[in-house]
Amino acid sequence: MKVKELKIVFSEEQIRRRVAELAAEIDALYGDEPLVAVCVLKGACIFFADLVRALKKPNIELDFVRLSSYGMEDASTRTVTFKKDVDIALQGRHVLIVEDIIDTGHTMDFLLRQFAARGAKSLRLAALVDKRERREVDVTTDFAGFALDTGFIVGYGLDYAERYRQLPAVYEIIPE
Ligand code: IMP
Ligand code: MG
């Protein structure tokens, strides 16, 4: 895909406001309960950094996973594996996964199953963008920043071939 232009989809100001709202929802839901927030690298890094800093709750631990998937074009043969797992033991913990975007749902379906098997006390998912058009597995996003119908987006952590992650807003790629 050759990039013709980037078209703004979510502005810095829109993102800042929505992240503050999500943080307030998360604070309200967990109250005083200690929480483990897990960032899904690399795409969620910027969303994660802003979200955890917007939380008022003091008792939060941060950890990171990196996943890779093969056979992406064919759901039936698709496998997801850990490139990097969390260090914290999740048994009996309230766990909040923070992801950039849910597309087919396969990546988060894998991670939710893995963490559930470790006996997390609760398991919830926050995603900056919930892209529903290509959903293949039923995944519930507990805290969704924005819904998106179509398009491939970049910026604010999201990449196209490792580019554009550093952009402070979210843009749709318009191909030539
Ligand atoms: P899923 O398993 O299909 O839900 O894959 C989700 C992953 O695909 C995300 O974590 C992103 O890394 C990537 N992805 C899906 N849609 C987009 C997009 O529009 N822009 C950038 N990355 C995307
Ligand atoms: Mg990702």
Short note summarizing the structure:
The protein has 176 residues and is an alpha/beta fold. It has 3 helices and 9 strands. The strands form 2 sheets. The protein has a 6-stranded mixed beta sheet with strand order 4-3-2-5-6-7, sandwiched between helices.
Structure description:
- The protein is α/β, with parallel strands linked by helices and 176 residues long.
- It has a single domain, classed as Rossmann fold, CATH 3.40.50.2020.
- It is built from three helices and nine strands, in the order βαβαβββαββββ.
- It has a six-stranded mixed sheet, sandwiched between helices.
- The structure holds inosinic acid and magnesium ion.
- Inosinic acid (IMP) binds next to strand 5, helix 3 and strand 8.
- Inosinic acid binds at residues 43, 99-107, 131, 152-154, 158.
Low-confidence stretches: none
Give me the count of strands.
Answer: 9
Overall shape: it is globular
Percentage of residues in DSSP E strands: 35-45%
CATH class: Alpha Beta
SS-based class: alpha/beta
Major β-sheet strand ordering: 4-3-2-5-6-7
CATH architecture descriptor name: 3-Layer(aba) Sandwich
Bound ligands, named by name, code or SMILES: inosinic acid, magnesium ion
Number of helices in the DSSP assignment? 3
Ends apart, CA distance between termini: 8 Å
CATH domain topology: Rossmann fold
Radius of gyration: 16 Å
**Overall pLDDT confidence:** 94
| The number of domains | 1
Q: Please bin the fraction of helical residues.
A: 10-25%
User: Largest sheet at a glance?
Assistant: 6 strands, mixed
Order of helices and strands: EHEHEEEHEEEE
